[in-house]
Amino acid sequence: MVDGGRIPALFAGLCDDAAVFPPGLAPLPDAVAAHDEHVSAWYAGLVGPLVIAATALGDLAEVLDGRETPLPVSVTLPGGPAQLDGVLDAVAKLPVKLEALEIAVPDGMGADEVLAALSRATAPVFVEIPRDERRIPLLKALAGTGHRAKFRTGGVRADLYPDEAELAAAVRAACDTGVPFKATAGLHHALRNTDPETGFEQHGFLNLMLATDAVLTGGDAEAVLSERDGAVIAERLRALDADRVDAVRAGFTSFGTCSITDPLTELAGLGLLEAPRGEA
Fold first, then answer.
1. DSSP structure class, residue 6
2. CA distances (Å), 63 to each of 24, 179, 258, in order?
3. Could you give the CA distance from residue 64 to residue 50 in angstroms, rounded to a whole number?
4. Which whole-number Å values give the CA distances from 185 to 53, 58, 279, in the listed order?
5. DSSP label at residue 9
6. What CA–CA distance (Å, rounded) separates 33 from 40?
7. What is the DSSP-derived secondary structure letter of residue 182?
8. Are strands 193-194 and 148-152 parallel, antiparallel or unpaired?
9. How far apart are CA 262 and CA 147, in angstroms?
10. pLDDT digits over 180-220, tens only?
């Protein structure tokens, strides 16, 4: 799997750059400058778009004033589809390439209403799936539409982290309906871990990747989500053939991270990536 200076297909475009979100909270000008550096580096193939909140688009206009090369962005709409028209209007005036929209589902909004609202979207949509009884109806409604799902895997409180059973069930539901998904929040490390400062149990992005494979191949997704041994995880990833890699990444498209360099460093530490000579 390791090929010095190249990003394997298993990790291509895996890391959406969410530098401006907690816990990173990078100032927008710094986040844009850093993103430009990331997509010019040897590991550019690992990097997805810069994730920006809808409310930050006005500030982004000032940061990008005079820019010629479009900035690839994914815009989050925490207020739901009601923000869509304003976002599309703002984006049309900016030197950006809109790669995705990440839209929350307000309380009380059902699957049919969500789907109708998405008809105005001009980019792929990740619908943030609520952690309630609407999960299955929403995923079924998204099936075959080209839209995708977004699962929250953590946050600033312990209760915002789904346990292994809940996360495995969400992955299973997405795979069963054929709806690709991304993950966001809480995936601060490659491996399952206990945060030393908060005590929160945090999922690993590599565990989630292998849990997707487990769902697709009849394995035990909950057990994979619990695994903390990096050597075990790395060996299982190396054992995936090209067809299983394609299937996993067709299901689990990316995850949001406030640091691109942290997952890069951890993948290298597990022997899954290797920098070209002369690069750190």
1. -
2. 19, 35, 19
3. 13
4. 14, 24, 29
5. G
6. 11
7. E
8. unpaired
9. 29
10. 999 999 899 999 999 999 999 999 999 999 999 999 999 99
CA distance 20 to 228: 28
Helix (H) or strand (E) holding 136: helix 135-142
Q: Which two tokens stand for residue 155?
A: 């946050």
Q: Are 168 and 145 in contact (CB under 8 A)?
A: no
- In contact, 99 and 73? CB cutoff 8 Å: yes
Q: Which amino acid is at 107?
A: D
Strands of the chain, DSSP E? 15-17, 47-53, 71-77, 96-103, 125-128, 148-152, 181-184, 193-194, 201-202, 252-257
Yes or no: say if 75 and 56 are a contact pair by the CB < 8 Å rule. no
Residue 35 token pair: 């993103």
Locate 269 and state its tokens: 């530490």
In this structure, what are the phi and psi dihedrals at residue 24, rounded to the nearest 5 degrees? -70, -50
228 in Cβ contact with 191 (< 8 Å): yes
**pLDDT digit string (tens) for 127-166?**
999 999 999 999 999 999 999 999 999 988 999 999 999 9
For the chain, domains (ranges, CATH) are: 11-268 (3.20.20.70)
Task: Spell out a b/e string for 12-47, using b for 16 or more CB atoms within 10 Å of the CB, else e.
Answer: ebbbbbbbbbeebebebeebbebbeebbebbbebbb
- DSSP-derived letter for residue 275 is P
The identity of residue 6, as a single letter, is R
Q: Per DSSP, what are the bridge partners of residue 181?
A: 149, 252
Give, as one character, the DSSP assignment of residue 235: H
The predicted model scores a pTM of 0.94
